[in-house]
Each structure stands twice: as C-alpha cells, then as structure tokens.
Amino acid sequence: MQFFDYENNELYAEQISLTEIAQQFGTPCYVYSRAAIEANWRAFDNALADKPHRICYAVKANSNLAILNILARLGSGFDTVSIGEIARVIAAGGDPKKIIFSGVGKTSAEILRAIEIGIHSFNVESGVEITRLNTLAASQHKIINISLRINPDIDANTHPYISTGMKENKFGIDIADVLPLCAKIKTFSNLNLIGIACHIGSQLTTITPFLSAIDRVLDLVAQLKQQGFTLQQLDLGGGLGIRYHNEEPPTINEYVMGLREHLADCPLEIILEPGRAITANAGILLTRIEYLKHTQHKNFAIVDAAMNDLMRPALYNAWQQILPVELNNKHPEKIYDIVGPVCETADFLGRDRKLAVESGDLLAITCAGAYGFAMSSNYNSRPRAAEVMVDKNKVTLIRRRETIDELYAGEIMVTE
Ligand code: LLP
Predict the structure, then answer these.
(1) From the CA of 61, how far away is ligand 1's center (Å)?
(2) Probe ligand 1: pick from 273, 281, 285, 377, max atoms within 8 Å of CB?
(3) Is the separation of the CB atoms in 166 and 179 below 8 Å?
(4) Model pTM greater than 0.85?
(5) What is the pLDDT of residue 158?
C-alpha cells in the first residue's frame, strides 16, 4: 500500500492524513490517489510502448469524471458499455476516436448515438447485433468499425458472477459461429471488420487462462486471414486481478510481458481493457464507527458506510482489508464484524476482523477504487458518498455527497 500508508501511526493518502479528510468532507467518503491511478495506467502503457497498442480503461470500474479526465490526459482510450458511460468519457474530455463500445445488450438508440459521436469501434456480441448495427449504420450513411467478441469457453477460475468466457455465459460469440458470421459480414456494406476481442472474466490471479484465450484468438485470426479478412486489432479485454487478501496475481508488467511473449510476432494493434488493475488499489472507502455492539456471540463495529456504498462484500462475499486510520493501543483488541446500518444481514463490509477500536474511530476499507462507488446505490434512502482525489499534498472534492432532496427529486406523487 504505497499510496496509502501509515506515518506516525496515522493512515495517509499520499501526503494527506485521512483524519483531516474525514473532518473536511465527512464520511462515508471515497478517497483516491492520483499518483496510484497514473502509475497503474502507465505500467500498462509502458509495457507495450514499442508495439502498436491502446490501453482502453474499462469505465465501469470507476466512472467519476475526474478519474476519466486524468486518464484522458495520459492518452487513454476507454472501454464502455452504455451510452451513459460514453457520455461521461466525452464530458471528461476523452477522445471519441478512442472509445470502444462493448456489451451484450446495446439498444438501437445507444448505437445511433454512438455512431453520431463517431466512436472508434463496436465490440459485437451476437449475429443479431451485427445485423442491427449494419441497418443502423446504413440509415446514417456511415461505415462503422466492428470487432467480434468471441467466447473462447475458458474457465477463468474466478467468482462465478464475474466469469464471462465460458459457454454458459451470455457473453461473446461461440467460436464455431465466427466463420459463418464473417461470411455474412462480407455481404454487409456498412460494417468494417477490424478485429477480434475477448474478455474472459475479472479478478483473474494467474496468467494461464489469458494465454489459453490468446491461443484461440490467434487461431481464429489465422483462419480469417485465409478467408481474406485483414484485421487491424486484437482486443484482449481486461481482467487482471489485484491483491485484496492473499492472492498473488502477476504484476501489471509481468502480465503484459506474459501476453506479449504468447503473442509472439503478431503485428496487430493490441488493445487492453483494464479496469480494476488501474483504479482498485488507488482508492479507499473512509468510514466512521458509530457504535460498538457486543452480544453474547459477536462483536459488531457498526459503521456509517454500508452495502449501498460498497456492495462487493455482500454480492460476491468479497474480502477487502479494513484498517484503523489511527493505530493506538488505547483499546482492547477484539474480533469484529464490520457492518453498516442497512436492514439486511448481507450488509457487512468485513467479518471476523481483529481491531483495537472505539466508537468514533475511523476505518479505511482498502482497494475500493474499482467497483466501489460505481456500484453504489441509494438503498435504504441513503445519499451516495462523497468522493475526493488526493494529489500529493492537495485534496479536491470530485463528487459532492448527495443531498437528501436529491434522493427523491425525480419522483412525482399521483394527485388523484
Ligand atoms: N472489458 C469487459 C468487456 C468487461 O466486461 C470488463 C469487466 C472489463 C473489461 C474490465 O475488467 P477488469 O479489468 O476490471 O477485471 N463488479 C465486479 C467486477 C465485474 C467486471 C465486469 N466486467 C467486482 O466488483 O468484482
């Protein structure tokens, strides 16, 4: 935890103490380190520096405009899955020509808007989508770039909810269907097939499944070449895992070097779509203990963040480290379940954690920069948390805490 570290027994984000941030912005609050985001993105980019490539950050991991803007300024491309994400990228100063639109359920309205904006390409997930894309592109008198997202039928050995590359998953095109589909694409005059894409899952902690996927992709590229298709790019998706607990994933550099070795002399442009590996360890969720509740069976630390703020523990039984912001030996060490105020037993942020804390103390839930705020909700009518960005000794509010009024601003009562 280089970017979040203790100094004089107090946890800092870069050069700013989290206690100060809590005083200034309140809790719960997401705190991001700009240096961490930039270092992670650059690690991907540098590892491919001498090859045609584009790092397309997966916006779904964390779509705050400040984060997208920082990445856009580094030259990042963006992998998006909705017109909302595309709009965010544009609003943040991202280049439409570096946007990829992925996803199994693109609506006609979304496709038309993306064509109008002039995005780089669509990652297509089915035959029916191909037909729809051609019709819509023709209606706009445009020729659009597409890549076929294949489903390589590979077990990514990750949580079943975030595994995407197996036959029974809804994602991608079965490899056996690719050649017939390509024949169909040839007859469509508004589509330009530029590549093959695949994404087999998220939080992968070994490189082997990625390499198996590359084998299948390269095999397909060779077959397509025989059929007269000259491709420009290979999109190998995202999915590199991080260390939440005791996982030992490859570093970004090891991962990219491993892919490169396997790609050998493949001359195509390499696209990567990392999300978690760029923002997860660049963020923490700062929360305050409201109550310590001791029962005969358990000790609970009831905090002001909840499953609506950070859903990963409830949804995937995910383990994220929980650190006291101040280290001291004033309080007895006990085993706690760290829970929120939401009325669900699934509302836990961590279970069976050893902590020496008192009510009023601050806790930091680490590696919360990806799939944290982005998956948050208003459940139990809880305003969504504030988000701040730390840059060395400077802290900036990048999303103000929602107000109570905003919770129901769009709601309308029936008058009769
Ligand atoms: N590309 C595509 C097509 C994707 O579906 C995803 C993630 C990514 C790239 C980025 O994957 P990453 O590099 O972040 O692993 N909410 C879950 C993760 C869901 C991932 C969905 N797709 C979690 O909190 O673990």
Answers:
(1) 7
(2) 273
(3) no
(4) yes
(5) 78
CA-proximal residue: ligand 1, atom 5 (nearest):
199
SS3 113: helix
Q: Give the separation between CA 234 and CA 232, rounded to whole angstroms.
A: 7
Of the chain, the end-to-end C-alpha distance in Å amounts to 58
Q: What is the model's pLDDT at position 156?
A: 76
Burial (CB count <10 Å: 0-12, 13-18, 19+), residue 84: exposed
Strand 283-294 to 299-303 pairing: antiparallel
Residues designated as active site: 343
CA dihedral 274, 276, 281, 283 (to 10 degrees): 110
Helix ranges (H only) for 271-334 are 276-279, 312-316
pLDDT at residue 155 in the model:
81
Which residue ranges of the chain lie beneath pLDDT 50? 1
Nearest CA to ligand 1 atom 6: 238
